[in-house]
Amino acid sequence: MPSWLSRATADHKAQLVTTAVVSGVVVGSAILGLQKAKRMYKVADLKASIPDLDEDNHASRTNFELLTEYGAASNAFVASKEDERSMALAARARKGDYDDDLILEQLARNRVFLTDDGLSKLRTAFVVVVGCGGVGSHATAALARSGVSKLRLIDFDQVTLSSLNRHAVATLADVGTPKVHCIRRRLEQISPWTHFDCRNELFNEASAPDQLAPLNGQAPDFVIDAIDNIDSKVALLYYCKTNNIPVISSMGAGCKSDPTRIFVGDISASTDDPLSKSTRRRLRALGIKDGIPVIFSAERPGPGKAQLLPLAEEEFAKGSVGELGVLPDFRVRILPVLGTMPAIFGLAVANHVILEITKYPHDYLPSKSRDKMYDGILGALQGSEERVAKSFGFDSHGLRIPMTQDDVGYLVEEVYHGRSVISGLTTRLCLVRWERPSEYFIDKRTPGQNNSLLRMKDLVLMTKEEASKHERDVLKGEKAVEDLYDGKVLETVRRRMREEERFERFR
């Protein structure tokens, strides 16, 4: 090293080059140091400009309450001095008193990934999150950290001790606080420029137009469904779908433990989840069978795995268990939840919303398309009804059956899970009457037109070979179903028909 330095200083050109390099390093370091110092001063000045809020500072408290136009929650909890300082900073930041360079630096990683155009779309987006528990809180936190500037939070519930195993931001100090306000006051400490519109309300069909209304003239860019109440969930998805509001729904994270089986796909492809099954059934009854992206787990229950805990016997002894719920039909049992799974669901939901809003390329599981199969099953059912009608002496020409392709899809997928009730096979499937009909199963009141009085609860799913034998021996023969099938098959059919009767009221 000394020999190289002596040679470099002896050469006049080398001296100039060395001087230039050293000067450049010094100047560059000075510029970077100055920029860093400016950023530090900006942050320090911003924080220092907020006065300490003590008991004597009544004017500051009054100003603070006037500025919480989006949170509107200053009276929802007893705020600490740290909370009040953070909320005062957030109130000022929402009015534009926050350096944009600091915001861009905080969002630098997103900015590089999504490009300036994508980040700009995200920063101007308005997202509604319905349900602020384990899934909703993680989704909201990810969106706020990623730059979404307008978030409406809707949830009627409060933070409880049992919430803390899965909630994204709640602490012991938040127990008893409305979930929407808990999220707002915690996230304001991370992204104070975010506008939070908190609705401490239950979502339902009647309130949907108001709760999903535009914010300051801007319609929702996306709605997140993180509800675990089936009535509210169906009402939200139906409203969004029929009003062309982009929505994504989180299915059940309870009793799930395998993160490798979590998928993003169409609701028609979601399986092995009771909440998903009930949601699909109810939506299909309302005419919606696909077109809604969902987060779901394909994990199957098994020996040793968590299950929904039953109510204790003493609770039943007290009277109607429906009175134990906060709301009619609301859950009254404890749902086993591994705290990590709602977080994964919530982050997956937020990830989808970010990609959709910024138009970032992505590709998910395609929804299963079995329309051709349903058409074939419908045609076979038509032929079976015509043959049975003919065996009863009716003119079967032009016989009409009150079934559609959607009805067939509902029975195949939701009631019989795509399997024969006889053998459990999944190929060459066919719908057929279960019991021999009465002699009055054809309506002839319309001149020139015969209509079958077939009902959905009359049908079962079999293979074509099984259906052919069943039609010959039961529908056109003299045998009863008890003569052909064992007790296990009979009980399976009775159980499926009872399920269909329960869901028939939603059709």
TrEMBL record:
One of its GO terms (molecular function) is tRNA threonylcarbamoyladenosine dehydratase. It is a multi-pass membrane protein. GO terms for biological process: cyclic threonylcarbamoyladenosine biosynthetic process. Keywords: ATP-binding, Ligase, Membrane, Mitochondrion, Mitochondrion outer membrane, Nucleotide-binding, Transmembrane, Transmembrane helix. One of its GO terms (cellular component) is mitochondrial outer membrane. It is found in: Mitochondrion outer membrane. Its main location: mitochondrion. Pfam families: ThiF. The chain crosses the membrane at residues 14-34. SUPFAM superfamilies: Activating enzymes of the ubiquitin-like proteins. Residues 109-363 form the THIF-type NAD/FAD binding fold domain. Belongs to the HesA/MoeB/ThiF family. Catalyzes the ATP-dependent dehydration of threonylcarbamoyladenosine at position 37 (t(6)A37) to form cyclic t(6)A37 (ct(6)A37) in tRNAs that read codons beginning with adenine. This is THIF-type NAD/FAD binding fold domain-containing protein. The lineage of its organism: Eukaryota, Fungi, Dikarya, Ascomycota, Pezizomycotina.
